[in-house]
Amino acid sequence: MRTCVPAPHGTLSFISVPIMVGRKWWGFLGFDDCKEERSWSSEEIHVLKTAAALIAGAIEREQASRESPTICAPP
After folding, report:
1. pTM value?
2. What does the pLDDT look like over 50-65, one tens digit per residue?
3. Residue 1: pLDDT above 70?
């Protein structure tokens, strides 16, 4: 998890959580607040981590489906 200082486009608070596919960093899921400087609650952090895990799971399933041979039934 990471927090940052305000960015030039008006972000006052920012949080990001990593998206880990397998054991490798794939990217991050980030949210910002442009209205107020704030601390992120443990519940919000938990939701973001859960969302990142769901995204990672979808990516892993997609990768697995590409690697698995397709079995076609005869017509």
Report:
1. 0.73
2. 999 999 999 999 998 8
3. no
Integer Cα distance of 20 and 54 in angstroms: 10
Burial 40-60 (b: 16+ CB within 10 A, else e): beeeeeeebeeebeeebeebe
Inter-residue contact 26 to 56 (CB < 8 Å): yes
> Hey, which residues does 24 pair with through a beta bridge?
21
Which domains are present in the chain? 2-67 (3.30.450.40)
4-10: Cβ within 8 A, 24+ apart:
6/37, 7/32, 9/34, 10/34
Mean pLDDT computed over 20-43: 93
